[in-house]
Design brief:
Helix content is 47%, strand content 17%. By secondary structure, it is an alpha/beta fold. The strands form 2 sheets. Strands 2-1-3-10-4 form a 5-stranded mixed sheet, with helices on both faces. Strand 6, helix 6 and strand 7 form a beta-alpha-beta unit.
Length: 323
């Protein structure tokens, strides 16, 4: 028969469990829900994944749901259509939508450099961008920043006779393997996949910008910023902390990346994360500087998507994070 003392202990334990459950429920209820659409599931977006995996957004009071759109345009469309609070993609996609009348703005930086490299097999005998003369380069079908940057490089350097072989994004290495191209313009993890196969880096586009380029950013509707100011601020504060983790705790960054991309070789993923961090590709904080914005918009002006003076930094950047 259970003693009076044991019954009292059981009652206290039950009360403690209920109290803990109630506190947890209150915490969960306090967190504001938010939806973010990413253009693609990309190793360049690692700060976002670290923030979710490590519970950083939750700690800052945001219950964040991640969705993958399939393209930058679709991600921005989800925000404009009211299906998402935020999206993550090339900030120029939001700029182009703004020009067409959408009340959308860029509020936080995720990718602050240019994560694009030209790689080639040793047999191609390419040592610098000048050696691309008369060669075929595999690159993504437009619209693609990789291809626009390559075209700009060819023009600026006056490299003659370069043939562009455009393929689906993510398949740029395939033409090299069958000899239909001598070089490829690629993102990570393709860079380190190529290096694992013996390929060499011929040119790094980030060398020109030194991590001062608004390559991928968070955007939101002006109405969301006004109607949910606390949630937006908390989300950006969470992003800032996640970006610090990337730079200050590389082991965590690598572990999360390996978890997010289980089909890739862990060594390739680790090397890719290290290369991106070393090249200042991951933003150190969410602040979008005017210099980074102008470097990005200059590429769009070069290809004719945006006319000079058509849009300004203050038109399409609303920094939630303050330096």
């Amino acid at each position: 028969m259970e003693s009076i003392k044991m019954k009292s202990v059981r009652k206290l334990a039950a009360v403690a469990v209920l109290a803990g459950t109630s506190a947890f429920a209150s915490f969960a209820e306090a967190n504001q829900p938010a939806v973010i659409y990413e253009a693609f599931h990309s190793i360049q977006y690692l700060p976002l994944y670290v923030g979710i995996d490590q519970g950083i957004f939750a700690k800052h009071g945001v219950d964040l749901k991640l969705m993958t759109a399939g393209s930058g345009a679709q991600a921005v469309a989800a925000v404009i259509g009211g299906h998402a609070d935020f999206s993550l993609q090339d900030p120029m996609t939001a700029v182009l939508a703004h020009i067409k009348g959408a009340p959308i703005t860029n509020i936080g930086l995720v990718v602050a450099g240019v994560p694009v490299w030209i790689i080639a097999p040793p047999s191609a005998n390419l040592h610098s961008e000048a050696d691309l003369k008369g060669k075929t380069v595999s690159t993504a079908m437009p619209p693609s920043t990789t291809t626009y940057l390559l075209q700009q490089l060819i023009k600026d350097k006056g490299i003659q006779g370069v043939n562009l072989s455009t393929v689906q994004l993510g398949t740029e290495l395939s033409p090299l393997g069958v000899g239909r191209a001598q070089a490829a313009t690629v993102y990570e993890p393709q860079v380190d996949q190529g290096i694992a196969s013996g390929y060499k880096i011929v040119y790094s586009f980030n060398d020109k910008y030194q991590g001062e380029f608004a390559f991928s950013a968070i955007d939101a509707l002006q109405s969301t910023i006004k109607s949910k100011p606390e949630m937006v601020k908390n989300f950006i504060e969470g992003l800032a902390e996640a970006e610090k983790v990337i730079h200050n705790s590389p082991d965590i960054a690598r572990q999360v990346a390996i978890k997010e991309f289980p089909t890739l070789d862990a060594k390739v993923v680790t090397n890719a994360v290290d290369r991106l961090a070393k090249n200042n590709i991951y933003a150190v904080d969410p602040f979008i500087s005017e210099g980074a914005f102008n470097n990005a918009i200059n590429v769009q002006q070069y290809i004719g998507n945006i006319k000079p003076g058509q849009v300004t930094y203050t038109d399409v950047v609303h920094n939630i994070y303050k330096k």
